[in-house]
Amino acid sequence: MMELIITMKTLKNQTQNNGFLCPVCKRHSFVHPANFEECPVCEWVNDGYQADHPDALGENTISLNEAIETYKMCGTING
Description:
Blueprint: H1 8-11, E1 20-21, E2 29-30, H2 49-52, H3 64-74
Antiparallel strand pairs: 1-2
């Protein structure tokens, strides 16, 4: 199992309502920074690891950087 480390990069996405913005679409707030919840807007799985390692694979089949670019073009990460 992947060890979960919450870093300052993850925490900077915290919103004023104490949620954590989806790092891909920035339109959904997760309750926790790494709860493996799927974003209902863009389908990103909130695994925490990829927020701190944007070029790595994790719970999602593409990297965070790839997901952001795909979302910009298609409105979902599964374009």
